[in-house]
Design brief:
The chain is mainly alpha-helical and 255 residues long. Helix content is 80%, strand content 0%.
């Protein structure tokens, strides 16, 4: 691995881990960095998923108290749906020709950018109860269908799934943001975890880069989180959005 590429990937992982710890959007840094380092798109996507998964697992553990405090009849259906959807998305990626996925990259980045940029507004609107009684705002099959689509997208690409899941959880009637984040983190861990297994079995993970980025993401997530958390979250989100827009424009130009 070239020294310049190693430095690029390590710094991208540190920054991505730091962003994921406070605002999300780490994939906007890690995935393009792998492409710039010369990793083929499908391998880059798989490697990025593996690199960010330990941070997702740690985040899920950090919210275990909120998770145990809230029991919902959809918890296990959500888990099963996430595993099925994540596996389906990963298998779809593995059976997508490299050239086809390459042409999809700008559009996937555009979709993820739109989700990240406007997802908060969408979630807030969905959380407005509009005078409806307590409980689920949509029927369980509809909610699980939304989560299945989100999980498929997450297994296939992944950027922006946190915002999508917060929106889905909002229509179940959940309002406590800490409990919603607990659910989101455990479901993201399931989606990415089953995708990681599929990618490892298919041998599409580029391990030297993956290990380097895992170390960088852990350092970024835990070593710089205290500093990043002191920043205004609006500025952090704005930075992610600017980077996402720049990456999207770059890949539309390139491909």
């Amino acid at each position: 691995m070239h020294t310049g590429n190693s430095a690029l990937l390590f710094l991208a992982a540190v920054l991505g881990g730091a962003l994921n710890s406070v605002a999300g959007g780490g994939s906007f840094i890690g995935f393009p960095a792998l492409l710039v380092a010369g990793i083929p798109p499908i391998q880059a996507n798989a490697t990025n998923t593996v690199a960010l998964w330990p941070g997702s697992l740690a985040s899920a553990g950090a919210f275990r108290q909120e998770l145990s405090a809230h029991h919902d009849r959809l918890f296990w259906p959500f888990i099963i749906t996430s595993l099925v959807g994540g596996a389906t998305g990963a298998l779809l990626l593995l059976h997508t020709p490299q050239a086809t996925f390459t042409r999809m990259i700008p559009w996937l980045l555009l979709l993820a950018t739109v989700i990240f940029t406007f997802g908060g507004q969408i979630t807030r609107k969905l959380r407005q109860r509009q005078g409806k009684p307590e409980g689920h705002l949509l029927s369980a099959p509809v909610v699980l269908g939304l989560q299945l689509l989100t999980a498929i997208y997450g297994g296939f690409f992944g950027a922006g799934i946190g915002i999508l899941m917060l929106a889905t959880l909002a229509v179940t009637g959940m309002e406590n943001i800490h409990e919603m984040n607990a659910y989101k983190n455990i479901l993201a861990t399931c989606i990415n975890g089953i995708a990681v297994v599929a990618f490892i079995v298919a041998r599409v993970v580029v391990w030297p880069q993956a290990v380097l980025m895992i170390v960088g993401a852990i350092l970024g997530g835990y070593g710089t989180a205290s500093f990043v958390r002191r920043l205004d979250p609006r500025y952090v989100r704005t930075f992610v959005i600017v980077v996402a827009c720049a990456m999207t424009a770059y890949f539309f130009h390139k491909y």
